[in-house]
Design a protein that fits this description.
The complex is a heterodimer of chains A (285) and B (334).
Chain A lengths: L35 H9 L8 H18 L6 E2 H9 L6 H16 L1 E5 L6 E6 L7 H5 L6 H14 L4 E2 H9 L15 H11 L3 E6 L6 E6 L1 H6 L2 H12 L7 H15 L21
Antiparallel strand pairs in A: 1-3, 2-3, 4-6, 5-6
Helix pairs in contact in A: 2-4, 6-10, 10-11
Chain B lengths: L3 H4 L19 H4 L4 H20 L1 H6 L4 H14 L4 H25 L8 H12 L17 H16 L24 H17 L11 H23 L5 E2 H5 L5 H16 L3 E5 L5 E5 L25 H11 L11
Antiparallel strand pairs in B: 1-3, 2-3
Helix pairs in contact in B: 3-5, 3-6, 5-6, 10-12
The chains are: A mainly alpha (285), B mainly alpha (334).
GO cellular component, one term (chain B): cytoplasm
Organism (chain B): Muntiacus muntjak (Barking deer)
Family (chain B): Belongs to the NSE4 family.
Chain lengths: 285, 334
């Protein structure tokens, strides 16, 4: 008697089997008919396989913590970093993890996880809750008060037609005691803050103006600004400082109004992590 | 044919007019160059460019004619230009002038003119409440008291944040609870956790130490450490029980005292020490010699007794004073 081969499912030459091949007698752990060959293939490179809910939940929790901590510096979080530091082997379910993490962040913290720009593969956290007057008292000391400076610059940019020269910015800020080359009591190096930090955080865009001599740069709103505030809000800030009505600047008011309408319209391809493409669609139990 | 009066202005555009008779080149170009003159022209151009740059604000912002004047001056200079070197300077000036012209045109846009940044500055001061300082010079924030600067920017910050949807930065409230300092960045922690979970999930046979109870480990370590201290004491002073309070109380930290009581309770539970009341009805800790044979050793012999110790902040202070405890017997591990 010939020895029966150990691996089940392999049709023995002596035993008659159905033409559609093995795997009928013994329950095969591989999902596809084809028996041993695919089993061998599966063992050679361990497929991710079904992951338990518990493992997924743990991953989502790690991802949420990672996103929160990465957001401290307000620098957009790169997808590659997420893959490298948190997700690792789970990258086939990255979009699912991101979706759940985004849900978690919204329900628990009230933060929205948004893609900075379509297809940029970088993410930021945006607050969903409008700031309340009383919060300002409770917020306490959250480090350097840079938002005030930022808002002033944003206001300048918008009111001057969405673009302003760097020299103009300094002409203005000098009167507020902020100089590009002088150390500031609160802001330290204001030039670095405005032309580097705010740019890295994507609040501002800093571009060189060609054909200028001496070289000059122009500042515009960056993508993060449009996500965290709006033209109308900045206009209202400026108006409040002037103790006037936003409508007193008709051109800017119209522009802000148009911007509000554009926002109200449903986005064709909304910036959401769920739309991030997953490399493969492996079954997840 | 000569048209000498007008020919100078065309000295650089010789390609336009080729009708100069036999010679294809303009006669003035054939003249011997007066170096001194050219140098002077270049100097004037440079001065013009410099002065226009310096007065840029003035030229662009106000309804002044200075730009037109500068252009006219350049025009006059250009009449004398016959070499490329000077013409290049003229071109440079033109770029600057057209740039300024563009700026000026932008300013002239009557809608945008509504926003006056100088006024914005003043209104900021008023908004913050600094207007009372204005008679002290135009810029209250330059060369001012630190407090004024702080309060200005704080006020602006408060207003600004109410117009933005910034996510608050996330920080752990009191840092890590582990006794060892957590010097590792959180990202690396995730990676290590990832590896551990992977090993647990993938290959069951390769299961190494399962570190699911990190806190428990820390407690055990502390308990062992304190037991060591206790046993050292007993070895040094055999047959001398130690006053319970003197052992657990840390006169400098109430929370550490509570922790010590917690850890000592494990020691007692596990039978390494015994707590009882002495003749003064004060609790003392006694060693239990494990090597002692006999019924005294059998843990089940001692009927299970339970003690509850409650210690308030005031109690703790009273004990420290009464017992005159100056130093903790249980030293910190860090």
């Amino acid at each position: 008697m010939s020895q029966k081969p150990k691996s089940r499912g392999r049709p023995s030459s002596q035993v008659e089997r159905e033409p559609d091949g093995g795997g009928r007698e013994a329950p095969s752990t591989s999902r596809w008919p084809g028996g041993a060959a695919s089993q061998r293939r599966a063992q050679a490179s361990p497929a991710p396989g079904p992951r338990s809910q518990k493992q997924l939940e743990l991953k989502v929790a790690e991802l949420v913590q990672f996103l929160l901590i990465k957001d401290q510096k307000k620098i957009p979080i790169r997808r590659t970093d997420i893959l490298r530091h948190v997700v690792g082997d789970y990258k086939d379910v990255l979009s699912e993890l991101l979706r759940r993490a985004a849900e978690r962040l919204e329900y628990v913290f009230g933060y929205r996880l948004v893609e900075l720009e379509p297809r940029s593969n970088t993410y930021i956290l945006v607050n969903t809750l409008e700031p309340v007057e009383e919060d300002a008292e409770v917020r306490g000391d959250q480090g350097t008060p840079t938002t005030g400076l930022l808002m002033i610059v944003l206001g300048l940019i918008f009111m001057k037609g969405n673009s302003i020269k760097e020299t103009e910015v300094w002409d203005f800020l000098r009167r507020l005691g902020v100089h590009p080359a002088k150390k500031h009591l609160i802001f330290g190096d204001p030039k670095k803050l405005i032309t580097e930090d705010f740019v890295r955080q994507r609040y501002l865009d800093y571009r060189r103006i060609p054909h200028t001599d001496p070289v000059d740069y122009e500042l515009q709103w960056g993508p993060r600004t449009n996500l965290e505030t709006s033209k109308m809000k900045v206009l209202k800030f400026v108006a409040k400082v002037h103790n006037q009505d936003p409508k007193d600047w008709p051109a800017q008011y119209c522009e802000a109004l148009a911007d509000e309408e554009a926002r109200a319209r449903p986005q064709p391809a909304g910036p959401s992590p769920a739309t991030a493409p997953a490399p493969t669609a492996a079954p997840v139990s | 044919m000569e048209a000498a009066a007008t020919s100078d202005t065309e000295s650089d555009s010789s390609s336009d007019d080729l009708s100069w008779g036999e010679a294809d080149i303009h006669p003035s170009l054939l003249e011997r160059v007066d170096e001194e003159k050219c140098r002077s022209i270049r100097k004037q151009y440079r001065q013009l460019i410099y002065s226009v740059q310096q007065n840029r604000d003035d030229i662009v912002n106000t309804a002044s004619d200075s730009l037109t004047e500068a252009l006219e001056e350049a025009n006059v200079l250009f009449d004398a230009v016959s070499r490329t070197r000077e013409a290049a300077l003229d071109a440079q000036f033109l770029v600057l002038a057209s740039d300024l012209g563009k700026e000026k045109a932008k300013q002239l846009n009557s809608d945008m003119n509504f926003f006056n940044q100088v006024a914005f500055c003043d209104f900021l001061f008023i908004f913050v409440g600094l207007n009372w300082m204005e008679d002290d010079g135009r810029d209250p924030l330059n060369n001012c008291d630190d407090n004024i600067a702080f309060s200005f920017w704080e006020t602006v910050q408060k207003e600004a944040t109410s117009w933005m949807l910034q996510a608050e930065t996330f920080h752990f409230l009191f840092g890590s609870f582990k006794p060892e300092s957590a010097a590792r960045k959180p990202r690396l922690d995730h990676r290590r956790k990832v590896q551990k979970m992977e090993e647990n999930g993938d290959m069951p046979t390769k299961l190494r130490k399962l570190d699911l109870s990190g806190n428990q480990e820390a407690t055990e370590k502390e308990v062992e450490r304190i037991l060591g201290l206790l046993q050292t004491y007993f070895r040094k002073y055999p047959d001398t029980p130690v006053s319970y309070f003197e052992f657990v109380i840390d006169p400098h930290s109430f929370s550490r005292t509570v922790e010590n009581i917690f850890y000592v309770s494990f020691i007692i539970r596990d039978g390494f020490a015994r707590i009882r009341l002495d003749q003064d009805r004060l609790p003392i800790l006694e060693p239990i010699n494990i090597n002692l044979a006999g019924e005294g050793n059998d843990p089940s012999f001692h009927s299970r007794k339970q003690g509850v110790i409650s210690l308030s902040l005031q109690d703790w202070k009273n004990i420290v004073a009464t017992f005159e405890i100056s130093e903790a017997m249980i030293t910190n591990s860090y």
